[in-house]
Design goal:
The chain is of the alpha+beta class. It is built from 2 helices and 8 strands, in the order ααββββββββ. The chain has one domain: Lipocalin, CATH 2.40.128. Helix content is 14%, strand content 36%. The radius of gyration is 19 Å and the shape is globular.
Length: 152
């Protein structure tokens, strides 16, 4: 009887390990989201900045209105020296990609980043306020890249 119990526990553990191996289906719906239209007509876009081998660890994020670029920054270089292997928009709060988290009248967006390593649980969500035709970094939150459904 005890041998059967241990066998059952071992098989159950293995099945949980394989079940947790796939990405959350809800997250799959926005994991390639690199375009966000703001209600006032502006657009925020995440793109690859170039084709050189070093460019794969960087992402360009820009804010535009029609053909005019209002704000533009390439991440993955500079002061924080973090790798932006992959990046996508994620909901700030459940189901909302644009949301005023602190009720100050300025909306926020969130960008989830994956650093390219094995530990998807140590990734970062960057929360930006959309103010004065620019994106202003408001907060950084640790997330699980494959299972976090929102930044907050």
């Amino acid at each position: 009887m005890q041998k059967r119990s241990w066998t059952f526990i071992a098989l159950l553990s293995i099945s949980f390990a394989f079940a947790a191996d796939d990405i959350d289906p809800v997250v799959k719906t926005f994991i390639r989201k690199n375009y966000l239209k703001i209600p006032d007509g502006k657009e925020v876009i995440i793109s690859q900045p170039g084709k050189k081998p070093d460019d794969i660890t960087m992402k360009r994020v820009f804010l535009r209105r029609k053909a005019t670029v209002l704000w533009d920054k390439t991440f993955g270089t500079g002061n924080d020296n973090l790798i932006w292997w992959d990046a996508h928009f994620m909901p700030v709060v459940s189901g909302k990609f644009i949301y005023d988290i602190d009720n100050d009248g300025i909306k926020e967006i969130a960008i989830a980043t994956w650093h390219g390593g094995n530990d998807i649980t140590s990734c970062t969500a960057y929360i930006f306020s959309i103010a004065n035709d620019a994106l202003v970094l408001k907060d950084k939150k640790r997330i699980n890249y494959e299972f976090s459904r929102s930044a907050y």
